[in-house]
Fold:
Amino acid sequence: MCTLARIEWEAEMSKRAVVAVVVISVLSLGVVGAQSPAGPKETSEEFEAKLGYRTGIITLPGGLATIRMPESFRYIGPEGSRRLLTEAWGNPPGSAEGVLGMLVPADVSPLDKEGWGIVITYDEDGYVNDDDAASIDYTKMLKQMQDATIEANKEREKEGFDPVTVIGWAEPPSYDAAAHKLYWAKELAFGPGDDHTLNYNIRVLGRRGVLVLNAVANMGQLESIRGETKGILSAVDFNEGHRYTDYLPSTDKAATYGIAGLIVGATAAKAGFFKVLLVGILAFKKILVVGGIALLAALKKFFGSKTTTTAPAETPANS
Structure:
């Protein structure tokens, strides 16, 4: 690929990745009070009893991966996750699309104010080459994301929205090259408020894609989540045939981004509105998003045809 063309494409993808952060902030502007998880004929205890908590060894749907559950967590399957995300936390039905399950702390109810969870999904974008992992300048990357967010805020102001700010790394990126596992966390601020959002990310690289584990909470829960991260990382593994080392270059699809793309947000940026929307919804769990149709109409103009953009074609090295 022409070096200049590649640089221009990667710069454009980096700028578009900030859309994920923008949508989070947009959603913060159209919310109302928490929705009750239980109807008039169902108590909170009855609702929680039907979530289907499981412990022990969990095989994710499709036999994709296995979770050896830490004692400090409980697993909820796809249907229980759907009920928790939509009926208890008040998110639209689309928020549960593609969710393979959730991990929730064993010592607190997900219906309590202090409750939080880790949502598990799978991005089948192809094998992510990790050759760039050792050479990434995370300080420079953070500055680029902050600058891109400032630029995106200009568009937000035109739409009448408050700015969103990437405060910094709540947890600097860390990649285990032997296990092919990655984690990082960002601290985000919306408008002039003092309450900051914690966006904690865990990725497990596989043969055909990446397991995505996202925990979104407030900054006060950082230490709790940080203390659980290593246990979660060691507990989740792809099954045989789906592992990173099972990749066959001659037949398997390769992703168009590397480790840097995972962190900046290449996956979310190119996935389009509905996939990115999940990121924003989970940032404001337990609240009911309103005006969804109007929000979609506004953001369609922002996305336009960008979500279909692909990398420039490869060209001879001497071009």
User: Anything to note?
Assistant: The chain has one domain: 3-304. The domain at 3-304 is CATH 3.40.1000.10 (Protein Transport Mog1p; Chain A).
